[in-house]
C-alpha cells in the first residue's frame, strides 16, 4: 500500500484513519474525500489533499482515481444504524449503492479495498455472547441488512473477479476527535463529553445493555494491519469479528464516576435504539482475526476511559486559557 483514497473521510473513523495513513504513507499520498467539505482546520482538509465525492457517483470516483492514482481504497462512507432507521431507502442507496460503485472501480483498476462491516450485521437470532465468527445473520435494521449484503458482495468480488477486498466487523467505536455519526453505540462517546462538560448525562439505552466496543486507536490499527496481512492466510477476508471491551451504560458511568465523582447519569430510553441494541451481540468471538492475521487490541475499558478523559480535559483547559477574540 503506497497511495490511498478514503471515502467518508470527514466522519468519526475517517477523521483519524486519514491522519494515521498520512503519517505512514506521506500526506500527499492520501486523498481524503467526503460528500461534505469539513472546516478548513479539519485534519482531512488541513493535513493533505481533499476532494468532494458522493460515493454513489461512479464517474466522479473514476475522476478522483485517475487524478490521484491510489492503489487502495478505504471505503468508510455510510449511514449508520439510527440514521438508517430514519431513512431506510437512503441508507440502502448510500451503503449498497456506494459499495457496488467502489467495488466496480476496484475491479476495473485492480485496487485493494477496505470496507468496514459491523456488529449490526447480526440480529436477534444470533448467539449474542460470544457471537461466533460464522453464525446466523438475520439483522432487523436496514443498516444491518446493508452490512450483511456488503460482506457478501465483497466476498463475491474477491471470488469472482479477484478484487483484494478485506474488512472488519467493528463493534461500537469510541473516540474523542470527531463526533459519532448517528449510531446506537453513540452513547459511549456522548457520555464522556457530557461528563467533562456538564457533569451529567441522560442515556438513551437502559443501564444494563451490554454491547461490544473498541477504542479508536485499535480500530485504526486493525484496519491498517488487516490491509498489510498475508492474503494467503485470510479465510474470512471481508468480515472479521474484532473486539476489545464489553460495556454497559451503568458500568461505564461508574468508571467515569471513579475519576469525576460528581458525574451523574440518568436514563430516558429511546425505544428505537434500545430495540436495535437488544438485537446486537454482547461480545464477539474474534479468534479468527487473532489466528489469521494476529489481531490483538491494546485498550481495555480502564485504559480507554483514562485516555478519553485525559484528552477531553486537556481540550477543556486549552479552550479556557485561550483569550476571547477582541
Ligand atoms: P460517520 O457517520 O461518522 O461518517 C460517515 C461519513 O460518510 C460522513 O462524513 C458523511 O458525510 C459521509 N457520507 C455520507 N453519505 C455519503 C455519500 N453518499 N458519499 C460520500 N460520503 C458520504 O461514520 P463512521 O462512524 O466514521 O463509520 C465509517 C464506517 O465504519 C461505516 O461503514 C460504518 O458503518 C462503519 N462502522 C462504524 C462504527 C462506529 O461505531 N463508528 C461501528 C461499526 C462500523
Ligand atoms: N456504531 C455503529 C452504530 O451504532 C455500529 O455499526 O450504528
Bound molecules: nicotinamide-adenine-dinucleotide, serine
Number of H- or I-type helical stretches: 12
The coarse overall form would be globular
The CATH architecture of the largest domain is 3-Layer(aba) Sandwich
Q: Count of DSSP E strands?
A: 14
- Structural class, from secondary structure content? alpha/beta
Oligomer: single chain
Give the percentage of residues in beta strands.
Answer: 5-15%
How would you describe the overall organization of this protein?
- The structure is a single chain.
- The protein is of the alpha/beta class.
- The protein has two domains: 4-171 and 216-241, Rossmann fold, CATH 3.40.50; 173-213 and 244-282 and 299-320, UDP-galactose 4-epimerase, domain 1 (Alpha-Beta Complex).
- The chain has helices at residues 12-25, 43-46, 58-68, 81-86, 88-109, 142-161, 187-197, 216-228, 249-259, 271-278, 287-293, 301-321, and strands at 4-7, 30-34, 50-52, 72-75, 112-114, 117-118, 165-166, 168-170, 172-174, 200-203, 211-215, 240-241, 245-247, 264-267.
- 46% of the residues are buried.
- The mean pLDDT is 97.
- Nicotinamide-adenine-dinucleotide is lined by residues 7-8, 10-14, 34-36, 53-56, 76-78, 80, 94, 98, 116, 118, 170, 172-173, 180-181, 183, 185.
